[in-house]
């Protein structure tokens, strides 16, 4: 065991936030002004830690007058998302626009398609119900199993395992939301000759926790190299309000409150960060387990889940396939 393995702990991811903020700031300025040749950035504000950190870093890099925040609520959104996004925008002093995307989603039959997918396994499901998608935890099982949780009008919740077809239909329907939001961000980017700033952190970017041509699309991604726990450090350094720092990470996609952990990741983000860090450095599961309060078997399960998600992420990161290279790299005819 090498020295890093012998002393493995949560401190591995400690960040010099001031130094890193300046480095990211220089990257944003270089990217936006010189490479992209844009006047500023657009950030979709969800009231969550990642979009808040990206907005604060953009202000740190470019100034408040070159940052636009977009609020994009819809029928299933939490009121907290809008309130906290507005709180951040006021703190940063940036210009904002609000676009309720419910009508667009209704026109695309997003909600109808979602409801039909759920009714395939819960026939009683109707407009008075609420729902969310959850996965089983790797702390207790070897494989991830998908379930839908439905809440009837009386408040009673039921958890039902999804068929493969119902799962795909449910995810395909709800992906309209991320793609619609990104369409709106690019409207404002085109309108003001700005660039769209993406908000995925390293955990999300690496593990494919985004929608292709949705929240995975952007011109610049300032925090894709930062682990989620480091994003919190950065946000705290930049003065992001405590209410946002204390909010549990959520997808804000379904009508029932849904954490990122139960929807996609195996573990809480701080433990998941450390597992990802350790796996990339080939640190044995046994050296990681004690530091994060899991068994060696559980960490090994997480390692396998990381590989499985990276397989999915390869498709999400791929550019369109071409018969031959086009442009400067094309051979001369």
What general form does the structure show?
A: globular
Q: What percent strand?
A: 5-15%
Q: What is the helix/strand order?
A: HHEHEHEHHEEEHEHHHHHHH
Using only CA atoms, what is the Rg?
21 Å
Helix content: 40-55%
Q: Which strands sit side by side, in order, in the main sheet?
A: 3-2-1-7
Count the E strands. Answer: 7
Please identify the structural class as seen in this structure: alpha/beta
| Main sheet: strands, sense, barrel | 4 strands, parallel
Gap between N and C termini: 56 Å
Mean pLDDT: 93
Description:
- The chain is of the alpha/beta class.
- Among the domains are: about 110-165, no CATH class; about 265-320.
- Helices cover about 50% and strands about 10% of the residues.
- It has 14 helices and seven strands.
- A four-stranded parallel beta sheet has the order 3-2-1-7, with helices on both faces.
- A hairpin with a 5-residue loop joins strand 5 and strand 6.
- Helix 2 (about 15-35) crosses helix 3 and helix 6 runs antiparallel to helix 7 (about 165-190).
- It is globular, with a radius of gyration of 21 Å.
- The model has no long low-confidence stretch (mean pLDDT about 95).
Ordered list of secondary-structure elements with their pairings:
Elements: H1 3-6, H2 17-35, E1 41-44, H3 49-62, E2 67-71, H4 79-92, E3 95-98, H5 102-107, H6 110-119, E4 130-135, E5 146-151, E6 157-161, H7 164-192, E7 195-196, H8 202-207, H9 228-237, H10 242-245, H11 260-263, H12 269-280, H13 285-292, H14 296-317
Parallel strand pairs: 1-2, 1-7, 2-3
Antiparallel strand pairs: 4-5, 5-6
């Amino acid at each position: 065991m090498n020295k890093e393995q012998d002393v493995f702990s949560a401190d591995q991811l400690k960040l010099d936030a001031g130094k890193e903020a300046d480095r990211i700031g220089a990257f944003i300025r270089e990217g936006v002004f010189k490479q992209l040749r844009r006047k500023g950035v657009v950030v979709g504000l969800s009231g969550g830690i990642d979009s808040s950190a990206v907005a604060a870093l953009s202000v740190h890099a470019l100034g408040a007058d070159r940052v636009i925040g977009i609020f994009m609520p819809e029928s299933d959104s939490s009121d907290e998302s809008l309130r906290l996004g507005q709180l951040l925008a006021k703190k940063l002093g940036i210009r904002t626009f609000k676009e309720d995307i419910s009508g667009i989603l209704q026109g695309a039959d997003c909600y109808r398609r979602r409801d039909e997918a759920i009714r395939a396994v819960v026939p009683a499901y109707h407009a008075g119900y609420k729902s969310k998608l959850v996965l089983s935890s790797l702390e207790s099982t070897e494989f991830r199993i998908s379930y839908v949780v439905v809440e009837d009008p009386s408040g009673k919740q039921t958890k039902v395992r999804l068929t493969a077809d119902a799962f795909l239909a449910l995810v395909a329907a709800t992906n309209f939301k991320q793609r619609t939001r990104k369409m709106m961000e690019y409207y404002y980017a085109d309108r003001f000759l700005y660039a769209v700033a993406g908000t995925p952190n390293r955990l999300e970017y690496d593990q494919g926790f985004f929608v292709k041509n949705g929240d995975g699309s952007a011109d610049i991604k300032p925090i894709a190299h930062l682990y989620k726990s480091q994003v919190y450090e950065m946000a705290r350094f930049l003065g992001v309000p405590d209410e946002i720092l204390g909010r549990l990470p959520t997808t804000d996609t379904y009508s029932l409150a849904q954490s990122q952990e139960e929807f996609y990741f195996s573990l809480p983000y701080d433990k998941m960060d450390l597992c990802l860090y350790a796996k990339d450095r080939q640190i044995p599961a046994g050296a990681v387990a004690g530091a994060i309060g899991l068994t060696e078997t559980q960490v090994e399960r997480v390692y396998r889940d990381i590989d499985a998600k990276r397989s999915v992420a390869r498709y999400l990161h791929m550019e369109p396939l071409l018969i031959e290279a086009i442009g400067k790299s094309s051979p001369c005819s």
